Amino acid sequence: MTIRALAGNLLNGAISGYAGTRAMTPVTTKLAGMQSRQDREQEKKVSPGVSYNIAAQRLAARVGIALDDQGAAKVGSLFHLGLGLGAGELYVLLRHKTSLGPIAAALLTGMALFLGIDEGLTPAMGWSAPITAYPLSTHVRGFLGHLALGLTVMAVAEVLFKLRLGGRY
User: Fold this and answer.
1) Alpha-carbon distance 152 to 142, whole Å?
2) Would you say residue 168 has pLDDT above 70?
3) Residue 89's pLDDT band (boundaries 50, 70, 90)?
4) 111 in a structural domain
5) SS3 letters for the chain?
6) Which of the chain's ends, N or C, has fewer CB atoms near its CB within 10 Å?
């Protein structure tokens, strides 16, 4: 792969990951509004707060940096965005290095983040309550939100591939 193709792939991943992150937020917000009052109350009761803000505070503390709530929110937002950009890079990598088609790569990308981060790393690190503490609707919201992320990443990345941004796959 040439430097130009690599740079194109990286840029494609970043752009499509950003778009996927931006698309996920309104989907999960709408789905949260559709949850029952009982499920919203259960989620609020068990949740220690915004998981990526908690992650930001705890990771900063490990290197001797104390973040107040405002600082944690800023760093947490960057952490969340970084995960979304990583989703775009994962999609491009899957399309470039495997025989997966666009839909399969999109679904795998979304599910990797949902299962690996939301259902795996986040509760394992204590950045959220254990997954069993949340109502089913919380998990469904996360699942559907990550599907929206993956499908948006796919749509944007494939257009960029067609425009020759990102080399070949």
Assistant:
1) 15
2) no
3) very high
4) yes
5) CCHHHHHHHHHHHHHHHHHHHHHHHHHHHHHHHHCCHHHHHHHHHHCCCCHHHHHHHHHHHHCCCCCCHHHHHHHHHHHHHHHHHHHHHHHHHHHHHCCCCHHHHHHHHHHHHHHHHHHHHHHHCCCCCCHHHCCHHHHHHHHHHHHHHHHHHHHHHHHHHHCCCCCCC
6) N
Structure token digits, residue 119? 């259902």
Contact status, residue 153 vs residue 106, Cβ threshold 8 Å: yes
Q: Which residues contact 74 (CB under 8 A, 6 or more apart)?
A: none
Answer whether 51's CB lies under 8 Å from 127's CB: yes
Q: How many structural domains is the chain composed of?
A: 1
In a domain, 53, yes or no: no
Of residues 111 and 1, the one with the higher pLDDT is 111
